[in-house]
């Protein structure tokens, strides 16, 4: 399980997802003129829930090493959820008057990258299995 490289990528994706819960993504001035690094409104709850889903999905996917097709599909689901999460963050950030992205916003790109690398590792494993079956 952990000797497969995609397990490491999925673990890193999960760690990055959970780190985004504690670290700020954006710091700016609210429409009231108050400096803040907290995202505003109801989408904040949605952002938290989707982030937790992505982190748990990455952890669950690690243990599905016997079913590579399902593992690959869950990696794709994680990629699409993370893209949706980035879009939700962008829409919520538009509520600020001015501000800057925090350095920790790179973690979202890291989650995307790690899910992509895990999916690539799964396809490589599938390719090796098919080649070994062909040689038998």
Q: If you had to describe this structure to a student in words, what would you say it looks like?
A:
There is one protein chain. The protein has four helices and three strands; from the N terminus they run αββααβα. Strand 1 and strand 2 form a beta hairpin. The protein has 136 residues and is mainly α. It has one domain: Butyryl-CoA Dehydrogenase, subunit A, domain 3 (Up-down Bundle). It has a three-stranded antiparallel β-sheet, with no helix packed on it.
Question: Features of this protein?
Answer:
136 residues, mainly alpha, Butyryl-CoA Dehydrogenase, subunit A, domain 3, 4 helices, 3 strands
SS-based class: mainly alpha
- Strand count: 3
Number of domains: 1
Radius of gyration: 18 Å
Tell me the span between the first and last alpha carbons: 24 Å
Task: Give a short summary of the structure.
This protein is mainly alpha-helical and 136 residues long. It has 4 helices and 3 strands.
Tell me the layout of helices and strands.
Blueprint: H1 5-22, E1 26-29, E2 35-36, H2 43-62, H3 68-93, E3 98-101, H4 106-135
Antiparallel strand pairs: 1-2, 1-3
Helix pairs in contact: 1-2, 1-4, 2-3, 3-4
């Amino acid at each position: 399980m952990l000797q497969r490289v995609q397990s490491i990528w999925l673990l890193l994706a999960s760690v990055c997802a959970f780190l985004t819960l504690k670290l700020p993504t954006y710091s700016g001035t609210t429409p009231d003129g108050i400096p803040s690094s907290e995202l505003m409104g109801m989408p904040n709850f949605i952002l938290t829930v989707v982030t937790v889903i992505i982190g748990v999905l990455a952890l669950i996917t690690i243990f599905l090493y016997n079913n590579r097709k399902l593992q690959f599909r869950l990696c794709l689901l994680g990629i699409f959820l993370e893209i949706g999460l980035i879009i939700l963050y962008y829409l919520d950030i538009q509520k600020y008057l001015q501000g800057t992205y925090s350095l920790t916003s790179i973690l979202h790109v890291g989650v995307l990258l790690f899910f992509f690398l895990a999916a690539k590792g799964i396809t490589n494993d599938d390719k090796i299995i098919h080649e070994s079956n062909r040689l038998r």
